[in-house]
Backbone:
């Protein structure tokens, strides 16, 4: 059997996307820049006359009679001024904003080997366009002197960040998917699935996503999606053990079940939220700088309970820190000297290296960029440790006449108690994406269930055992 299909699915807009962003300023965190007296646009508020503060979201009702419908719709007497000394941030939306959409397409072949065994192999892909992107169109130009030159400085000297929402993001996904299905026969049934796929985009999250390193070059952000899983294998199986009547039904009604889930690592990104090397350390940039990476990204695999090896400077010991116990383990002086030598050989700027230190793992190093430049490392080049999990259960059915029954369940989740560590970024732990915080950089530190606030019952927990009884009538 041959099958194929295609569709176009349009998205909808949510107010939260425009009101609150995790990685860039927006309406919810716009400083008021308020002055106690009227100030001409572009002027300066006299010393001691500014309120400062930030706008807090709340519900406010203003009677229609108080609004100036033919002018600015603020009530008369309200004075809010943005000045060069106390600049405001602005959250803006493309006036020609289009509806995001996704084009889906698939083609597959299905073949039955026996009445109970079939195989389906197919191609599944999609392309997303007009997706929402969020960037700062007033981002400081890179410079080594700490002078923040903003693109709209001449036109709007009283504005700092200008968060701009537009349709500049895109995505692509292509995959080969295979499913082997065995229907129940001789007490056995199973479904095995394998997917080989690759997802790419230039921004995986339009809400709570981090701002691009360079807001004027979104194409530089195009890379493996934050949700890219290259290989995924799943198996669900059940086997009804042949029974024998008698002995109070103890030798019949038994069934064994298992679910196996194997998933290759997902990417995690790196963003320096403190140093602001691109604008000479001024702190006026968007604080989304990346560093320079040399070597094999596989050497910087996250996971486990400790940070990646960090070297603070010449003569100092390199170390790793436990994200659980906070215990710091130091390398020997000779090993530390060799690791620091790897950093100095690759670092483009001795000054930024001395300021921020570096990370060394295997033959690969992560070093700060040259002052006044963006980091050269790509987006999402590092991966976590993947996901491997086996669940197992035993069911026992009892029959009491035709209308009544009971089922006892013994279920074990993560049967082998295999440790699973959170992705430093995707699960919300945020524990290891910032190289300026060497205590936890590169550390999963948590299990996925704890990181997502769904302890024990969430995916990725330690071994759990559950007993259950179901009555049917």
Residues:
């Amino acid at each position: 059997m041959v099958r194929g299909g295609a569709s176009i699915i349009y998205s909808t807009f949510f107010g939260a996307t425009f009101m609150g962003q995790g990685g860039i300023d927006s309406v919810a965190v716009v400083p008021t820049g308020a002055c106690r007296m009227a100030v001409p646009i572009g002027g300066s508020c006299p010393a001691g006359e500014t309120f400062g503060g930030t706008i807090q979201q709340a519900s406010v009702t203003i009677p229609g009679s108080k609004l100036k419908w033919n002018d600015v719709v603020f009530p008369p007497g309200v004075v809010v001024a943005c000045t060069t000394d106390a600049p405001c941030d602005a959250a803006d939306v493309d006036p020609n904003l289009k509806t995001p959409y996704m084009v889906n397409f698939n083609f597959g072949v299905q073949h039955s080997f026996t009445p109970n065994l079939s195989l389906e192999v197919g191609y599944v892909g999609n392309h997303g366009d007009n997706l929402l992107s969020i960037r700062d169109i007033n981002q400081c130009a890179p410079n080594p002197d700490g002078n923040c030159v903003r693109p709209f400085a001449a036109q709007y000297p009283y504005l700092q960040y200008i968060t701009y929402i537009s349709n500049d993001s895109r995505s692509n996904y292509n995959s080969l998917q295979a499913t082997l299905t065995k229907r129940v026969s001789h007490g056995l049934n199973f479904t095995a699935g394998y997917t080989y796929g690759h997802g790419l985009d230039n921004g995986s999250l339009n809400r709570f996503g981090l701002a691009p390193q360079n807001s004027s070059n979104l194409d530089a952000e195009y890379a493996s999606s934050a949700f890219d899983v290259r290989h995924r294998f799943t198996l669900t199986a059940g086997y009804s053990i042949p029974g024998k009547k008698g002995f109070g039904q103890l030798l019949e009604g038994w069934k064994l079940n298992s679910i196996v889930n194997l998933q290759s690592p997902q990417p995690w990104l790196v963003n320096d939220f403190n140093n602001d090397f691109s604008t000479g350390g001024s702190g006026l940039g968007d604080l989304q700088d990346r560093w320079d990476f040399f070597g094999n990204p596989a050497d910087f695999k996250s996971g486990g309970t400790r940070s990646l090896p960090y070297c603070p400077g010449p003569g100092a010991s390199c170390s790793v820190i436990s994200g659980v116990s906070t215990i710091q383990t130091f390398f020997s002086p000779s090993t530390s000297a060799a690791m620091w030598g790897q950093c100095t050989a690759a670092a483009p700027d001795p000054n930024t290296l001395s300021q921020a230190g570096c990370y060394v793992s295997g033959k690969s190093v992560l070093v700060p960029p040259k002052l006044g430049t963006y980091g050269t490392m790509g987006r999402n080049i590092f991966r976590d440790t993947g996901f491997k999990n086996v669940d197992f259960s035993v069911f026992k059915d009892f029959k009491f006449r035709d209308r009544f029954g009971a089922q006892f369940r013994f279920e074990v989740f993560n049967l082998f108690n295999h440790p699973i560590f959170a992705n430093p970024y995707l699960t919300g732990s945020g524990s290891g994406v910032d190289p300026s915080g060497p205590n936890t950089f590169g550390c999963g530190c948590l299990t996925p269930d704890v990181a997502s606030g769904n302890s024990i019952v969430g995916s990725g927990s330690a071994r759990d055992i559950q007993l259950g009884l179901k009555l049917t009538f």
Notes: The longest strand covers residues 159-185. Confidence is low (pLDDT under 50) at residues 22-32, 53-58. Residues 269 and 380 are 5 Å apart (CA to CA). The longest helix spans residues 333-346.
